[in-house]
Amino acid sequence: MKSFIRRWLPALVFLMSWPAVASPQAAWDTETLMHDLAMVQEAELTFVEHRTSGFLLGETRLTGRLRYRAPDFIEKTVESPFVQVTTIQGDSISIEKVGDRGESVTRHYNIDASQALQTAVEGIRATLSGNYGYLRESYMVELTGDRDSWSVTLVPRDDVMRGVIETIRISGMEARISSIDTTNADGDESRLSLSYQTIR
């Protein structure tokens, strides 16, 4: 389950921080940024993810697509170098792995089975609904920069969660996220670079 959280958390955090168009008169702070998220009902994007690991030589590069539909549907599809579809809806998670010959194996998990996973997923839902109070309860949140060049750093408050994820840094400009950098407690790192396709 920890390896699942490490692989999925950058995508989850991206959805936690999904930007909508803010009012020009609104103050630029974390609460304003999070408040705007509730406006998004559906979105699709492509991603490129680079992972480095102390156990592997070199770097792993993944490409694929992300989909979100309010209030609780999230899907991450890895298209290369392998095919895997992870879907979160309600209290359940399914992971479908597709083999070279087209055969597939699907596993199902309950969000409540892992405290760290529950914290991550519920944090997303709270953010999408504008519940900034829940996010502050789960993470230490720091916003730096301005609208033209900003970053949000998240540090888990929970000891179990910190045993998996050390820090998450979300960078962007104006109302768009450009990258999400995640540092795991074991030293592994990942960078998720994002390209928007549709936002409704």
Key features?
outer membrane lipoprotein receptor (LolB), chain A; 200 residues; single chain; 11-stranded antiparallel beta sheet; alpha+beta
Topology:
Blueprint: H1 2-16, H2 30-35, E1 42-52, E2 59-69, E3 73-80, E4 83-89, E5 92-98, E6 104-110, H3 115-128, H4 132-138, E7 139-146, E8 149-156, H5 159-162, E9 165-173, E10 176-184, E11 189-199
Antiparallel strand pairs: 1-2, 1-11, 2-3, 3-4, 4-5, 5-6, 7-8, 8-9, 9-10, 10-11
Helix pairs in contact: 1-3, 3-4
What's the average pLDDT? Answer: 79
The number of helical segments is: 5
- The CATH class: Mainly Beta
Report Rg. Answer: 16 Å
Which term fits the overall shape? globular
Roughly how much helix do the residues carry, as a percent range? 10-25%
CATH homologous superfamily placement: Lipoprotein localisation LolA/LolB/LppX
Instruction: Report the structural category.
Output: alpha+beta
Task: Describe this structure as you would to a colleague.
The protein has 200 residues and is of the alpha+beta class. The protein has a single domain, classed as Lipoprotein localisation LolA/LolB/LppX (outer membrane lipoprotein receptor (LolB), chain A, Clam). Helix content is 23%, strand content 48%. It has helices at 2-16, 30-35, 115-128, 132-138, 159-162, and strands at residues 42-52, 59-69, 73-80, 83-89, 92-98, 104-110, 139-146, 149-156, 165-173, 176-184, 189-199. Strands 6-5-4-3-2-1-11-10-9-8-7 form an eleven-stranded antiparallel beta sheet. A hairpin with a 2-residue loop joins strand 9 (165-173) and strand 10. Helix 1 (2-16) runs parallel beside helix 3 and helix 3 runs antiparallel to helix 4. The protein is globular, with a radius of gyration of 16 Å. The two termini are 32 Å apart.
